[in-house]
């Protein structure tokens, strides 16, 4: 038997071992591949370069501005809005009670994205002058457009602005890379900076999951995105409410002046809408706001006229100091003061109210996420700066993201997002501190404070360089 069976040679054994090893490697590799795909099924999450959470004025403006930026036109952008589709603006309907005083910077933003002409063709009221005065001392300051190249402000209904922005998104030649998803409520957020993943995740209440390179929180003062960023927030509730209404003027007039009077309970403003209509923003105590909403139309009209024309008690020390100052600077306040048009009625069902407060996030950004608008900051409406600060955020963020894309960097790169934060903070903080200071200063009838603010207001109106600097800050 041994003579019939030859043992394999060394060469044959080596060849056999190599073949067996190759087969085993293929089997192991196939098994690992199969196991890996069995454990990690292919993700079904939809991916976007940028997701904007919140489709209000600021969030929608950002979506349009990003979509129209040539450097970013290859990026997929998604705007998530929890409300149903916007119904549009009806120019035949009565004026809405939600209006904004838009400054020059915001007008330039609208012009750059093609939305301004749309608004101008419908109804925009240009404010040529503003008068602000103190009921406790009659100190006043006036702002006029004749010293500047543009209007003091433009009064526009919020619904018209939103309609103009959506018109840009609906135009097939504009912002084709922007998708709007309505009835899309965010249930949870996982940022890449927390999970270590490449992308952030957005979980919707309908069960869908979205991923993105950059998540932008435009979801208001109670921002879910901001909470997930885990940053400190300084906030104050003023224990005040703003009452808004649309009112009919007693007589038709040019009506291009915005009026604001500081009452002992807070400021009341009359903003022009047309030759016969104005919008009211009345900041006052919570009980008084409730009372104003419960009044009949006739009684509310009477209360509003009293707010602008009533003579309030004045402290003798303040009166003497103001008279002395006016004599020194050669100023006759009675010759300078103008009075707003009388109101003879309020448009039915136009009254509403909203809480007033202050909020500022300690940071606007983190890797893969950024905040804009009320998600980052909230101010008192007395200077009309709230939405303008949000539109300023839009301008700065678009600039930074286009810089990042042009340089080939990731959109969520914190190095670039920090630039946005620094630029926005430099603009927002001085205005926010100033507005908060004015609210605090005019929320008391304490004689030394009334004296200080009255002298300051009168001197500011007299010293042109200071007045012009203040106005430039306020209007753009």
Essential attributes:
476 residues; alpha+beta; FAD/NAD(P)-binding domain; 9-stranded mixed β-sheet; 8-stranded mixed β-sheet; 15 helices; 20 strands; disordered N terminus; monooxygenase; membrane
TL;DR of this structure?
The protein is of the alpha+beta class and 476 residues long. The protein is built from 15 helices and 20 strands. Keywords: FAD, Flavoprotein, Membrane, Mitochondrion, Mitochondrion inner membrane, Monooxygenase, Oxidoreductase, Ubiquinone, Ubiquinone biosynthesis.
Structure in words:
The protein has 476 residues and is of the alpha+beta class. The chain has a single domain (46-475), classed as FAD/NAD(P)-binding domain (3-Layer(bba) Sandwich). It has helices at residues 10-39, 57-68, 104-112, 116-120, 158-170, 192-195, 224-229, 286-294, 297-309, 316-329, 333-336, 386-406, 414-441, 447-462, 464-475, and strands at residues 46-53, 77-80, 99-102, 125-127, 129-134, 140-144, 153-157, 178-181, 186-190, 200-204, 209-217, 233-249, 257-263, 266-272, 277-285, 343-346, 352-361, 365-366, 369-371, 377-378. Helix 2 (57-68) packs parallel to helix 5 (158-170), helix 10 packs parallel to helix 14 and helix 12 (386-406) runs antiparallel to helix 13. The longest helix is centred in the N-terminal third of the chain and has 30 residues, at 10-39. The radius of gyration is 30 Å and the shape is globular. The N and C termini lie far apart (106 Å).
How are the SSEs placed, and which strands pair?
Layout: H1 10-39, E1 46-53, H2 57-68, E2 77-80, E3 99-102, H3 104-112, H4 116-120, E4 125-127, E5 129-134, E6 140-144, E7 153-157, H5 158-170, E8 178-181, E9 186-190, H6 192-195, E10 200-204, E11 209-217, H7 224-229, E12 233-249, E13 257-263, E14 266-272, E15 277-285, H8 286-294, H9 297-309, H10 316-329, H11 333-336, E16 343-346, E17 352-361, E18 365-366, E19 369-371, E20 377-378, H12 386-406, H13 414-441, H14 447-462, H15 464-475
Parallel strand pairs: 1-2, 1-11, 2-8, 5-13, 11-19
Antiparallel strand pairs: 3-7, 4-7, 5-6, 9-10, 10-11, 12-15, 12-16, 12-17, 13-14, 14-15, 17-20, 18-19
Helix pairs in contact: 2-5, 2-12, 10-14, 12-13
Main location: mitochondrion
Keywords: FAD, Flavoprotein, Membrane, Mitochondrion, Mitochondrion inner membrane, Monooxygenase, Oxidoreductase, Ubiquinone, Ubiquinone biosynthesis
Pathway: Cofactor biosynthesis; ubiquinone biosynthesis
């Amino acid at each position: 038997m041994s003579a019939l069976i030859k043992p394999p040679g060394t060469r044959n054994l080596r060849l056999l071992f190599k073949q067996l090893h190759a087969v085993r490697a293929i089997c192991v590799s196939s098994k690992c591949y199969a196991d890996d795909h069995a454990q990690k099924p292919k993700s079904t999450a939809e991916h976007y370069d940028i997701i904007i959470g919140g489709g209000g004025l600021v969030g929608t403006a950002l979506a349009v501005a990003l979509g129209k930026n040539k450097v970013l036109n290859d990026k997929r952008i998604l705007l998530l809005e929890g409300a149903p589709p916007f119904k549009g603006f009806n120019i035949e309907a009565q004026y809405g009670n939600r209006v904004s005083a838009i400054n020059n910077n915001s007008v330039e933003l609208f012009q750059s994205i093609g939305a301004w002409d749309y608004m101008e063709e419908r109804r925009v009221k240009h404010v040529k002058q503003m008068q602000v005065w103190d009921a406790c001392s009659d100190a006043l300051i006036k702002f006029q457009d004749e010293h500047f190249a543009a209007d003091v402000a433009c009064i526009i209904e919020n619904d018209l602005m939103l309609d103009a922005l959506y018109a840009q998104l609906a135009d097939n030649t504009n912002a084709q890379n922007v998708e709007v998803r309505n009835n899309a409520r965010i249930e949870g957020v996982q940022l890449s900076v927390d999970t270590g993943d490449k992308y952030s995740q957005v979980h919707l209440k309908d069960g869908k999951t979205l991923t993105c390179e950059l998540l932008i929180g435009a979801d208001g003062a109670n921002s879910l995105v901001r909470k997930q960023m885990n940053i400190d927030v300084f906030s104050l509730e003023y224990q005040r409410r703003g009452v808004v209404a649309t009112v009919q003027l007693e007589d038709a007039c040019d009506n291009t002046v915005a009026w604001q009077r500081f009452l002992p309970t807070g400021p009341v403003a009359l903003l022009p809408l047309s030759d016969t209509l104005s919008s009211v923003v009345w900041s006052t105590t919570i009980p008084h706001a409730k009372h104003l909403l419960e009044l009949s139309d006739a009684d509310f009209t009477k209360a509003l006229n009293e707010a602008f024309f009533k003579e309030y008690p004045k402290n003798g020390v303040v009166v003497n100091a103001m008279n002395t100052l006016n004599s020194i600077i050669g100023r006759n306040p009675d010759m300078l003061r103008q009075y707003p048009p009388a109101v003879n009625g309020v448009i039915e069902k136009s009254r509403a109210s909203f809480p007033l407060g202050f909020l500022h996030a300690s940071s606007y950004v983190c890797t893969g996420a950024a905040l804009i608008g009320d998600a980052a900051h909230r101010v008192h409406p007395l200077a009309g700066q709230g939405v303008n600060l949000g539109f300023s955020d839009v301008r700065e963020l678009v600039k930074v993201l286009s810089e990042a894309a042009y340089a080939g960097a990731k959109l969520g790169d914190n190095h670039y997002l920090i630039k946005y934060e620094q630029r926005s903070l430099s603009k927002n903080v001085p205005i926010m501190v100033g507005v908060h200071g004015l609210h605090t200063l005019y929320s008391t009838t304490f004689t030394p404070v009334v004296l200080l603010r009255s002298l300051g207001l009168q001197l500011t109106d007299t010293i042109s360089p200071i007045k012009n600097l203040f106005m430039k800050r306020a209007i753009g």
